[in-house]
UniProtKB/TrEMBL annotation:
GO biological process, one term: quorum sensing
Top-level taxon: Bacteria
Species in which this protein is naturally found: Anaerocolumna cellulosilytica
Hydrolase found in the keyword field: yes
GO molecular function term, any single one: peptidase activity
Cellular component, GO, one term: membrane
Protein's name in the database: Accessory gene regulator
InterPro entries: AgrB
SMART domains: AgrB
UniProt keywords, alphabetically: Cell membrane, Hydrolase, Membrane, Protease, Quorum sensing, Transmembrane, Transmembrane helix
Keyword DNA-binding: no
Length: 194
């Protein structure tokens, strides 16, 4: 769907003289990626509204997405699978935020420290779609490390201020990335073994 729409839009841009024919593939790919990201974000927002957890979802996304970009991890092989896995991830998060008793949220720092420790040892996790050379690994590791410390500090300050719900959301952003990174490592090992 997005492929045909982006192709149609880039052809129109060529016809109107806005871009040149040699730039077709770059613009087509960029438009397709943009449309997919908008679709993902719109779906997340609708899920947040449906579960009445929009603000919580936005806080999670603000912490999780930058960390995910630099820490890496599992990547689905098709856009549809990526969309489905992403939506299921958001649904599971919203369910956890709804179902977790407030007494359990008091212990969010245990989850945050455990997830941070795991992440420090394994990031960045490259995938078949995004292999990294040594300089990129160093760069991504330093960015991911900064974000881990930043999110962990935010969770700790929130906990010290007795904002346990916020601390729990930040801890979950670290925990979800840790799971995705571990799955990405395991998927990468199985690809290398074949």
């Amino acid at each position: 769907m997005f492929n045909k729409l982006s192709e149609s839009l880039t052809n129109r841009l060529i016809e109107t003289g806005i871009i040149h024919t040699d730039e077709l593939e770059i613009y087509r790919f960029g438009l397709e990626t943009l449309m997919m990201k908008i679709c993902h974000l719109a779906s997340y927002l609708l899920l947040g509204i449906f579960f009445d957890k929009l603000l919580e979802l936005l806080l999670f996304i603000a912490a999780f997405i930058p960390l995910r970009e630099y820490a890496g991890g599992y990547h689905a092989k098709t856009p549809l699978r990526c969309y489905l896995v992403s939506c299921l991830t958001v649904i599971s998060l919203l369910f956890l935020l709804h179902a977790t008793p407030s007494q359990v949220m008091n212990y969010s720092m245990i989850l945050a420290f455990l997830a941070s420790t795991i992440l420090f040892f394994i990031v960045p996790v490259e995938s078949a779609n995004k292999p990294l050379d040594e300089s990129e690994k160093t760069y991504y590791r330093s960015k991911a490390g900064f974000l881990i410390i930043f999110i962990l500090t935010g969770a700790l300050i929130s906990r010290m201020l007795d904002w346990n719900y916020l601390s729990y959301i930040l801890a979950l952003s670290l925990a979800y990335e840790a799971v995705i990174a571990i799955v990405g490592l395991r998927a990468g090992k199985s690809v290398h073994m074949q």
